[in-house]
């Protein structure tokens, strides 16, 4: 790779290209990385502007990240929140319910985590655990599942009527890409903790996940709380385009002065409908 001294001496693009050729480095790969970093910086600056506007307007915003394991939910949340003010932002990633919580109304533990006025809350998985993961893995009964599927549209309609803005992302990853990411986790000692027995079953139970995912969409995709599908085989593209989607939903102060495109690529971000092309079928 390039040394810091070499980079400091570069003044023009052609110098960078020449140095890359001399070192036998893929310049296109380097340029794509630079472009990604620049786009990410511009979008994160816009998210800071959006957060300030939401705080000023006392709005309540919840952004839900759902999807199969290794789809890139956590990495995207990290980039979303990297430069936001922690005083008006939270990340919620609840562990499995306690014995006491198991005896309560299912939504109660999530209601406690909903955004306060002026706050954005990022849910790394949400109440939708009961729509896919729990029934697939046998963590809930059929009665509990059926009750949830009836109640969730009503619950989200109450949030809508009360002024809570809910954005629901489904991160869609192909079976082959998921396996690649699992393999990479196992080989990387810094990421091995992310791999669990539940992950191992994810590949084995792929078709069952697909069945419950489609049932979830058919029963919980509504006009007031739609599902937004994000194609995530390219992690970097998914991060940028999901940021653009969120920014496109608000008319915040300074939006017209943005230094980058704020509307998502329709080939990556799709509003769910029955015949929409998905990659995790």
UniProtKB/TrEMBL annotation:
Q: Which GO terms describe its molecular function?
A: polyphosphate kinase activity
| Top-level division of the source organism's lineage | Bacteria
One GO biological process term is: phosphorus metabolic process
Top EC class for this record: transferase
**By its UniProt entry, which Pfam families does this protein fall under?**
PPK2
Polyphosphate kinase-2-related domain ranges (all copies): 33-256
On whether Manganese is a keyword of this UniProt record, the answer is: no
EC assignment: the record states 2.7.4.-
Keywords (A to Z) from UniProt:
Kinase, Transferase
How this chain assembles, per its entry, is: Homotetramer.
Task: Summarize the protein's role.
Answer: Uses inorganic polyphosphate (polyP) as a donor to convert GDP to GTP or ADP to ATP.
Task: Give the UniProt family note.
Answer: Belongs to the polyphosphate kinase 2 (PPK2) family. Class I subfamily.
Task: Identify this protein by name.
Answer: ADP/GDP-polyphosphate phosphotransferase
The species is Aquimarina spongiae
């Amino acid at each position: 790779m390039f040394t810091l001294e070499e980079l400091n001496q570069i003044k023009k693009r052609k110098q960078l290209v020449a140095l890359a050729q001399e070192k036998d480095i893929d310049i296109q790969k380097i340029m794509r990385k630079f472009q990604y970093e620049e786009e990410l910086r511009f979008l994160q600056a816009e998210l800071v502007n959006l957060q300030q506007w939401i705080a000023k307007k006392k709005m309540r915003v919840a952004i839900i990240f759902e999807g199969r394991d290794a789809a890139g939910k956590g990495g995207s949340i990290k980039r979303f929140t990297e430069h936001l003010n922690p005083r008006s932002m939270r990340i919620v990633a609840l562990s499995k319910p306690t014995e006491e919580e198991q005896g309560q109304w299912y939504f109660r533990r999530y209601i406690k985590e909903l955004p306060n006025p002026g706050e954005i809350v990022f849910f790394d998985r949400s109440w939708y655990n009961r729509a896919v993961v729990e029934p697939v893995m046998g963590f809930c009964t059929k009665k509990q599942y059926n009750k949830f599927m009836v109640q969730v549209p009503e619950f989200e309609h109450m949030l809508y009527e009360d002024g809570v803005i809910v954005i629901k992302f489904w991160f869609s990853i192909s079976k082959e890409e998921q396996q690649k990411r699992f393999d990479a986790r196992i080989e990387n000692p810094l990421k091995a903790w992310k791999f669990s027995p539940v992950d191992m079953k994810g590949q084995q139970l792929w078709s069952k996940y697909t069945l419950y995912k489609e049932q979830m969409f058919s029963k919980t995709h509504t006009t007031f709380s739609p599902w937004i599908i994000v194609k995530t085989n390219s992690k970097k593209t998914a991060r940028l385009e999901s940021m653009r989607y969120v920014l496109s939903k608000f008319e915040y102060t300074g939006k017209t002065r943005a230094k980058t495109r704020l509307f998502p690529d329709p080939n990556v971000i799709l509003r769910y409908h029955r015949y929409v092309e998905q990659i995790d079928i």
